[in-house]
Amino acid sequence: MALTFLLGVFSFIVFCLGLRRLLHSDKRKNPTHLLHHVTSTTADASPSLQSPSSRPLWKYDVFLSFRGTDVRKGFLSHLYKALTDNGIHTFRDDTELQRGNFISPALLGAIEQSRFAVVVLSENYATSRWCLQELVHITKCVKKKQMELIPVFFGVDPSHVKRQSGNFAKAFAEHDKRPNKDAVESWRKAMATVGFISGWDSRNWNEESKLIEELVQDLSERLFSPVSTSDNGEWIGMSTHMRSIYPLMREDPNDVRMVGIWGMGGIGKTTIAKYIYKAFLNKFDGACLLENVKRDFKRHGPSHLREKILSEIFRKKDMNTWNKDSDVMKQRLQGKKFFSSHWFGPGSRIVITTRDRRVLDQHDVERIYEVKPLRTTQALQLFSKHAFKQPRPSEDYRELSLDVVEQLGGLPLAIQLEFWEDKLDLLRNNGDNSVFKALKVSYEALDEIEKKIFLYVAVCFNGVYMDRVRKVLDLCFVSSRRRVLPTRPSIVALMEKCMISLSKKRLWVHDLLQDMAEDIVCEGKDERPWKRLMLWDFEDINHVFSTNMGDEAIDVESIFLDMSEGNELSITPGIFKKMPNLKLLKFYTNSSVEESRTRMLDGLEYLPTLRYLRWDAYHLKSLPSQFCTSFLVELNLSHSSIETVWSGSQQDLGNLRSLNLIRCKHLNEFPDLSKATNLESLKLSNCDNLVEIPGSSLRQLNKLVHFKSLHLDGCSSLEEFPFISVTVEKLLLNKTSIQQVPPSIERLTRLKDIHLSDCKKLMNLPDCIKNLKFLNDLGLANCPNVTSFPQVGTNIRWLNLNKTSIQEVPSTIGDKSELRFLNMSGCEKLVSLPPTVKKLQQLKYLYLRGCVNVTESPNLAGGNTMKALDLHGTSITEELVDSNKGEEPPQCEVPVIRRFFMKNVRGRSKKRKSNR
């Protein structure tokens, strides 16, 4: 597949899955039934394919009925956590100690509003009148087909439940002494009913954790939680789509398949992809959902996307570091196409959404689903959900609602926007009932500041962290009294009006709204681009920069230009003097930035209103002396030719929050930051010519009260640990010459991440590092002089100690209850891990590759819950599990590319068979 073309035209999402063990041995059902259940196209076979109107609107997915004294603190608590961790909304009554003789109406309501009832039948279940009353009500709901009942026979014989024998006979003998014979008889009938239902017998599992895992997986498959739990209208109309899409996904579970979802912007392609992702997530070992692929590819290039996909699939946050130590990954991926079928295990699925059918045709994607607009009834239901918070409009608003739905043409995005009755006439009078004109009604309803902020976010900051956007835009809006107008209230208002959204702390604008924003900026100014608010097209920018317009002013406030296309931009001398309103200037590239593609005879003249400047590969030696920094919030000159940042007298940097000078190879002078009193982030990584970092310069950082992040990777001249502000949260000091971390590090009480990898002179860390309560990521890879395991605090999550000289892991490792990732590959002096490692319930990744003196298998807490376990090159000669029991060892190295941990262990030639 041609990578450049493919990513260049993708609109939204690439969804890739790695096959999970659908065909593994199952104690309850055969694999063909499981696969059929997942992919059936009939409404009867799959709850997710029933129309929303025919299904109850359940408040809970699962109601748990149990005898607290038997199971509350053990089995039940683990089951409840597993259910909630998998997004299954579960009701668990925690008021047993205060119960009376009768079930409260609230509890009865919880039963009636639950999709499933999981009844844990333990030894003393029948002794509780409360439990028996619950059971009677549950069986009534089952008979009315309002819920499904799943019994769990916990340590009891199902036949004893069915016949009320054994302990159940004793319990009912006591109940028979009570005067209310009718109630006792109803309890007996309910118990017998449950006994005849095929359920989960705990005696068939050697481990409770395995029982819970399979039970929760079964519930997930039967629930299809995106359909059953959503009551906000997001999935309306999905059953219609799924009847066509499920067959495309299910055929031949052993092949690798691409499925295309094709349709116009705003038609619901992203929503469909998200639904598929949630519905099928638990069926595969690894999954990755990517949005805005085209934009990310243009901004960051293919390597970024590849790393993003791998990090999502392997649940590893820094694939760059991890890949360096994984020969298997290199061999596996070397020379492969981006979406070659060789990447994925049999049964994998890649779902692609695009507006352009040619993307799919030219790359042999044969299984294509064309998304059509919502039907009138579905569109009306969706509109009513958002406008009236109910499934259908009242009679008073039905005619108006139908009118709106008709004008919007069944497009989900447009329907979700807010419309008012007095705006409907505008829709009717537009003539062309296009979505653009419909969307513009919502834009016209904004106030002037909201309009401008929306345009800035849509055109310039789509997908950027909200905090960064807000700090830049705050200084773009000043009142008549020269006071800064905070933009946060307006941003929140735009979110409430569905014009922008917030996801993972980033602001997003739907591509349909982004298209509209660009049209609004250009409206009426096609022939005079210098009169627009913003410029982003090369032809328009080149025209403005190369044309002599005499005394005519340039009104542009923002210029964002991607220089990756290879075009050279010629800049007329003095052009910036004609841009008194320029606030945002960004010349960026995602390809190699060895040299600038801008040609400028003089520097950036006085720009009194500039708030944001990014100029990749800026080719002059410094910013000009007349360059105004008074309002500058972000300055990014990465990969540039500067030798010093600013010339002349000290600059006013009171508003500067971020300074990025990464890979400025000619930079020979540490920037003067004495006036950058609000600086939060400083990035000077890989400035090769910065041979000296004066102590006085670093001491300036100690005075910064908002400072959070310092990047000095590759600054080999740095020999002393920087004395910086106590507010810092992130320190990247890889490949420096630091020899010691001083005890004063405990001053940095907010520190979360510190990376000191490849510091060849670094000695052991001080014990006081354990006092850093927020520290969760520590990197010490390739530090040969580190001989002692760092005494980190209990909240540590990521420890990379690869290729250190550590000989022993202390028993206190068991106290690190949050530890998820431990890499000790290449620690040749390490002999073993202590028994307390079994306390690490959260540990998912353990790497001991090349630890030649490790002879004993680590005693892990949760064998089968491990995501990756690498014991290659160790001296282990024993089995981690008892193969006679038919148990499978934990997965090794990569969760999707199935490898087992014992392969290539020293002294062994036996290989295990893969389950793929």
UniProtKB/TrEMBL annotation:
InterPro entries documented for this protein: Apaf_helical, Disease_R_plants, LRR_dom_sf, NB-ARC, P-loop_NTPase, TIR_dom, Toll_tir_struct_dom_sf, WH_DNA-bd_sf
One biological process term in Gene Ontology: signal transduction
GO molecular function (one): ADP binding
Keyword field: Leucine-rich repeat, NAD, Plant defense, Repeat
Domain TIR per the UniProt entry, residue ranges: 58-223
Pfam family, one: WHD_ROQ1
UniProt xrefs under SUPFAM superfamilies: L domain-like, P-loop containing nucleoside triphosphate hydrolases, Toll/Interleukin receptor TIR domain, Winged helix' DNA-binding domain
SMART domains (alphabetical): TIR
Keyword NAD attributed: yes
Keyword Repeat recorded: yes
Stretch forming the signal peptide: none
Name by which UniProt lists this protein: TIR domain-containing protein
The organism's taxonomic lineage, starting at the top: Eukaryota, Viridiplantae, Streptophyta, Embryophyta, Tracheophyta
